From TrEMBL:
Keyword Transcription: yes
Keyword annotations: DNA-binding, Transcription, Transcription regulation
Protein name: TetR family regulatory protein
PROSITE patterns found in the cross-reference section: HTH_TETR_2 (PS50977)
SUPFAM superfamilies attached to this UniProt entry: Homeodomain-like, Tetracyclin repressor-like, C-terminal domain
DNA-binding region, residue intervals: 32-51
Domain HTH tetR-type per the UniProt entry, residue ranges: 9-69
Source organism of the structure: Myxococcus fulvus (strain ATCC BAA-855 / HW-1)
Any GO molecular function: DNA binding
Coiled coil: none
Cross-referenced PANTHER family: HTH-TYPE TRANSCRIPTIONAL REGULATOR YJDC, TRANSCRIPTIONAL REGULATORY PROTEIN
Location of region: Disordered: 197-226
Amino acid sequence: MAVRGRPRSFDRDAALAQAMSLFWAKGYEATQLADLMAAMKINPPSFYAAFGSKEQLFREAVELYLATRGAGSMKALAETAHARDAIQAMLLASADIALASPSRGGCLVSLGLVNCQSQNLPLREHMRALRRETVALIHQRLAQGVVEGELPAGLDVPRTATYYAMVMQGLSLQAQDGASAEELAGIVATAMSALDQDQASASKPAGRTGGSTKKQGAAARGRRRP
């Protein structure tokens, strides 16, 4: 008869949620194993049996974050009807997430592991890959907006996608530095003006400026003395 292992004496999902909150508040490298075990209320044997390592725990915590507390921005991007409104909703949701983070830690994906020791370089590359996925999703939504006529046909989609991903990261940094909800909303409004200007330029009738210039030139010639 097979011998069953000792059942876990803790709730793994609850422990993972505690770890996510701690990583979100402090970042990967500043979070010590002792801090994690205390927050998760488990001992070292239980920790390693359940999660394997701090790195593996962090990867799971990031996945939990993306599926729960950090899901709002990409959800807004995907579900808001008009492309321009979708970008704005994404940025506002990103600001809300940054403000809601423990100890104003900002976005876990953006700031959870930026600079690191050499042994953590593979994990940093994993986080970079997640950020590239965000750029790709923004690119996809902008491109869809161009195809459907919601955005100008001449929009530089790759550049614009990178720009708005950068704004999202900047919102996290500003929240971490103590910016208020009103200040972050102002940053979003300023960022949206870039897309609005592109749309305004594209909507101007062709040749309007040239025609106006010709009329002004004719009027000036009419005022000249013979």
